[in-house]
Amino acid sequence: MLLKASVLKAGYVLKKDVYAKSNKPLIRSGTVLKDVHIAFLKAFLIDSAEVETKTASGQTIHAAEEKTEKAAETFDPSEMKVDSSNGNYQMAVSAYNSFFKQWQSGSGINIGEFRRAVMPLLADSLNDPIWIARFFLKRTMIRSGADRSVAMGLLSAFLGKKLSFSQGDIYQIGLAGMLADCGLAKLPPSVLNKKENDAGNERSLYERHVTDSYKMLKGVPSLTEEAMLAVIQHHEREDGSGYPLRLNGERLSRSGKILAVCDRFLHYAAACPENGWPVRILDRLIEGSYGKLSGYLLEKFCNEVMTLFIGSEVMLSDGRRGKIVFIPAKSSATRPLVRLENNQVIDLSGNKLLGIDQIVTG
C-alpha cells in the first residue's frame, strides 16, 4: 500500500526500501516505523512510502485512512511542539551517526543532506523554550558522540539567538557546532573511543581533529567564513592556551568563542551526575573557565540557561523547596532569587552556604 509520508504512523511496516539520493537505502524494508523514522522521511523530502497492509501489531490499514491526509496538511505543528522537537532531535542524531560512518569510510560531507537532516531541529526547537529547558535537564546530550555533536550545534544556535543573531547566522553557528568535530572520523578507534582528557601520549593526534574538521569542510558550499572560523577556533582559549593555533582572545572570532563556551559546557556535563543539572554544570563551567573563555559570553550563556527555569520548582541544599523568581544580572546566574513555600524570598547570591541542589521535575 502506497501512502503519503504525511499520513504514516508509528507501527506501520515498510514493504519496500526507501531511498534518498544514495544507492544505500535510507530505511530498509521490514522496518517497523517509529516517529523518528517518519520525521526522517519528511526531512529528506520523501513524499510517499510503500507499507504492508497490516501494522506490526496485526491491525489492518484501510485505504480510507488516506482521507486524513488533508487534515495532516493543515495541522498546526505548534500543537505538537514538544513531540515534534523530540522527533527532530532523534532524527538529527540518527542521521549524524549515519553520516559519521560515511566520513570514516572516506566520504566527503554532503552539506545538502546534512542540512535536511538537522535543520528541522534548529528551526523548531529554538522556538520552544519548554523543550529546550527539558533538554538541559537530561543526559541525552552526552549519551553518544552523535548526541554531543548535535547538542553542540543546538546550544550554539541557542546562544546565537539570545545574542540577537540574524536567522541565517543562527543556523550557520548551529551547523558549525554540529560539524565542529566531524574530523574525529579521521581518528583511529583507539583514540576516538577515549575521552579528551584521557588521550595521553596520543594527545597531539586527538588535537588534530580540529584541523581535520576544517579540511573536511573547506570548500563546502553554504558554510560562511565565520562558520569556518568557529570550527577551527572552538578549542582555542582567551589566554592562548588552546589549540590548534594557540590564539589569544583578541584574535578569536565571536563564533569561535561561542562554540568554545558550548563545548566546555558539554565537557563538564559529561563528568556531572544528572541529579542537579544544569546548575551544577554551570557552576563547574564558571569555576573552571576563568580567564579561558569569553567572560561576557560565558555570563550570557549561563544567564540565558537559568532564565529558562524561572518559575520552576527547586530543592535547596538544606532540603527546603521553592520556585526561581528572578535571575539577578550582576551576580552568578546559578544563585537566583527563590520564593520558598512559605512565600519568603531568598537571594542565594547573598548566602554562599545555601544553593540549588536540583531543579524538580514531574
UniProtKB/TrEMBL annotation:
Cross-referenced Pfam families: HD_5 (PF13487)
Occurrences of domain HD-GYP (ranges): 123-318
Gene3D superfamilies: Hypothetical protein af1432 (1.10.3210.10)
Database matches in InterPro entries: HD/PDEase_dom, HD_GYP_dom
Annotated SUPFAM superfamilies: HD-domain/PDEase-like
Superkingdom as given in the UniProt entry: Bacteria
Annotated protein name in UniProt: HD family phosphohydrolase
